[in-house]
């Protein structure tokens, strides 16, 4: 498990998440979107290709088909969900 901050520009908010680095980014994005929606009282159905998760520090888009850990994401990473 890694602890990361995820910034959601559309909401202008940062959320703290504990994520399984052995899960694919696509699966994690679905879970992240569901959790943010529940917290904010929103409905944002996940549709493949509508969202991307980016590493703010390295300025890269994470590959949704790869595991989080494979892409070098560690505790204290700063991510962006757009």
In short:
The protein is of the alpha+beta class. The protein contains one helix and five strands.
What would you say this structure looks like, in words?
With 82 residues, the chain is of the alpha+beta class. It has one helix and five strands; from the N terminus they run E-E-H-E-E-E. It has a five-stranded mixed β-sheet. Strand 3 and strand 4 (60-61) form a beta hairpin. The model has no long low-confidence stretch (mean pLDDT 94).
Give me the secondary-structure topology.
Layout: E1 2-8, E2 13-19, H1 25-40, E3 53-55, E4 60-61, E5 78-81
Parallel strand pairs: 1-5
Antiparallel strand pairs: 1-2, 3-4, 3-5
From the alpha carbons, calculate the radius of gyration and give it in angstroms. 12 Å
What is the overall number of helices? 1
Largest sheet: 5 strands, mixed
Portion of residues within helices: 10-25%
Sheet with most strands: strand arrangement: 2-1-5-3-4
The shape, in one word, is: globular
In whole angstroms, the N-to-C terminal distance is 23 Å
Oligomer: single chain
Descriptive keywords:
82 residues; alpha+beta; 1 helix
């Amino acid at each position: 498990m890694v602890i990361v901050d995820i910034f959601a520009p559309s909401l202008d908010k940062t959320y703290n998440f504990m994520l399984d680095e052995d899960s694919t980014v696509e699966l994690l994005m679905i879970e992240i979107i569901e959790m943010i929606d529940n917290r904010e009282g929103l409905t944002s159905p996940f549709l493949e290709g509508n969202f991307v998760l980016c590493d703010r520090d390295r300025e890269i888009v994470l590959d949704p088909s790869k595991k989080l850990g494979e892409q070098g994401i560690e505790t204290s990473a700063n991510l962006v969900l757009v």
